[in-house]
Amino acid sequence: MAIYFDAASQTDKDGDDPACHGLVHDVDVGALFRQKTAFKSLNQAEKLNIINNHFRPGEDYAFPKVFMNGCNRSFQRSWQQRYPWLVYSKECDGGFCLPCVLFAIRESLCTLVTTPFNRWIKVSKVCGEHEKNRYHIDTMVAYDNFLTTSRNPQKTSKFKLKANAGSRLRETDKL
Ligand SMILES: [Zn+2]
């Protein structure tokens, strides 16, 4: 597996692979797939690096157009507002659900997780259905927890200590 993380935390003995020189910007999940990255075995820092530094097309980025159902079509930046988990892979010209790529634990995963989504005319169907999957919903909870603990570990552990020490509302109080 190529090392594409902070050079300071890795000892680069091979030296020849350009991907081994602390490339932390414009990480592309599609490229990582091609490198046969074992996402499940990545550590916390590695996952956070992918999340923080994944390629984000700028306003002037020209998405490749593909002729599909009578029109030239391409990935639309506005989809990422509708589906905040959607990342665009320049390498694949396709979309992925980044949280599911990194955290989904179900084995039978498909488009948006193990293969890029690129049937642009089907965006509402494919992304809409993906969002309703139980594994995606569970993954989003795990993803949010991961971000909270990774980005602010001290606050989280303090909060947990306080929460455990203090008296908690009884379940019946919620009703
Ligand atoms: Zn997902």
Notes on the structure:
By secondary structure, the chain is mainly alpha-helical. It has a domain of about 120 residues. The chain is globular, with a radius of gyration of 19 Å. The protein has seven helices and four strands, in the order ααββαββαααα. The chain has a two-stranded antiparallel sheet. The termini are far apart. α6 crosses α7. About 20% of the residues are buried. The site of zinc ion (ZN) has 7 residues, from α4 and α6. Zinc ion binds next to α4 and α6.
Number of helices: 7
Give the helices and strands as they follow along the chain: HHEEHEEHHHH
Strand order of the largest sheet: 1-2
DSSP, total strands: 4
Percentage of helical residues?
Answer: 25-40%
* Class based on secondary structure composition and strand pairing: mainly alpha
Poorly predicted ranges:
1-23, 163-175
Q: Please identify the oligomeric state.
A: single chain
How far apart the termini lie comes to: 51 Å
Largest sheet: 2 strands, antiparallel
Write down the overall mean pLDDT: 79
* Shape summary: globular
- Spell out which ligands are present: zinc ion
Alpha-carbon Rg, integer: 19 Å
DSSP strand (E) fraction?
Answer: 5-15%
